[in-house]
Design a protein that fits this description.
five-stranded parallel beta sheet, 9 helices, 2 domains, Rossmann fold, alpha/beta, about 240 residues, two-stranded antiparallel ribbon
Length: about 240
């Protein structure tokens, strides 16, 4: 690890000790590294990451009442409505590990969900409001991250033809197997995902920006530096 990365980690830890994180919504376009950063913040603060996708799968797998309803809806090929997702989140937020805060992943995804969450938290005297932090990476860089990805079908090592290419073009360094590109790692799919993200997220960003609970961080840096930037942004927003 470089000295600058070590400094960023130390700064993040120092800041992390000073604040109660509360509910944090991580935003960012496909490929910015939200999942990676969520894991960094979970380690730093000892708070859970709450993913609506994980909640949905867990409820279905466990056969809960909410899970049974969701399974029936999905079985008809329909989208799970906001009201049902909200209920799953409400149940999860009753767990004791959420007291100091949590990282929201994929929720609130719509303005309706944001209003519901704000309203719910406002009724809890001890709860801090949601703050939203958006990880910013320029479009062309994201495109290279996504379309350049290749993985080894044997050992699952991931390469990038632009930023982390294999020693021999098209073949895994470890297994020697021919690398493959996922079907959804194409420019066409990426453009569609970006359009969908912008359409859904823009109102959510505007909502939190208007309330002074929104910040942006540069996502085109080392992982530790991005994490330190997010922690510093949360400290400012909580100040």
């Amino acid at each position: 690890m470089s000295s600058s990365s070590i400094t960023a980690v130390d700064q993040g830890r120092d800041l992390g000790r000073k604040i109660q994180p509360g509910p944090i919504l991580l935003l960012g376009a496909p490929g910015v590294g939200k999942g990676t950063q969520a894991k960094e913040l979970v380690k730093l603060w000892g708070i859970p990451q709450i993913s609506t996708g994980d909640l949905l799968r867990a409820n279905v797998a466990q056969g809960t009442q909410l899970g049974r309803v969701a399974k029936e809806i999905m079985g008809r090929g329909e989208l799970v409505p906001d009201s049902l997702v909200n209920e799953m989140v409400a149940v999860r937020l009753l767990e004791p590990d959420t007291v100091r805060g949590y990282i929201l992943d994929g929720f609130p995804r719509t303005l309706g969900q944001a209003h519901w969450l704000d309203g719910r938290l406002a009724t809890q005297v001890e709860s801090l409001p949601v703050v939203a932090v958006s990880i910013q990476v320029n479009y062309n860089q994201l495109l290279r991250r996504i379309t350049g990805r290749r993985n080894c079908p044997v050992c699952q090592t991931i390469y990038n033809v632009y930023m982390n290419p294999p020693k021999k073009d098209g073949f895994c360094d470890v297994e020697g197997a021919a690398l493959v590109q996922r079907a959804d790692d194409t420019e066409e799919v990426f453009k569609e995902r970006m359009r969908a993200y912008a359409a859904l997220t823009a109102p959510v960003v505007d909502h939190y920006r208007e309330q002074g609970r929104f910040a942006e961080v540069d996502g085109d840096r080392p992982i530790a530096a991005i994490a330190a930037g997010i922690v510093a942004a949360v400290e400012r927003l909580r100040g």
